[in-house]
Amino acid sequence: MKTRLFIASIVLAVMAVIVSSCDKKPATPGEAFKQYATCLADKDYEGYVDGCDLKTAGQSEEKIKEARTTLIGLLQLSAGETDKKGGIKNVEILEETINEGDTTAVVKAKFTYGDGSTKDNDVEMVKRGDVWKMKQAK
After folding, report:
1. Domain 28-135 class, CATH top level
2. Contact 93, 30 (CB under 8 A)
3. Per residue in 76-97, pLDDT tens?
4. Quick one: which of 27, 48, 44 has its CA closest to 36?
5. Hey, how many other C-beta atoms are within 10 angstroms of the C-beta on 17?
6. Distance between CA 59 and CA 29 in Å, rounded?
């Protein structure tokens, strides 16, 4: 009986750590981008799109939902190209530059693929409230 109680306690402790880490918001634009890129690597396209700043002034919620659905569809369609390279195996943040006012930033990241190839990206980030989001091209 004591063994079962001990095992149950360990399981609950581990679950508490996992749940609390899921709620943690990234503090920097680089941490935020790495989180979103990890979603992309794991083919969690909804998680990736959650990191996109889809709101623009005057845009209705319906238009935002349409943009979200379209972006998820495009990511699913383009997954084959990434798969040809062996998938995303690592994302390294090379540099982050936060601009004056702490509301925008540029993150320089390096993607490493399963076939060993790499690609450097510069990603513009924008801070919405206390959350860093990837700025979308217009």
Report:
1. alpha beta
2. yes
3. 999 999 999 999 999 999 999 9
4. 48
5. 10
6. 25
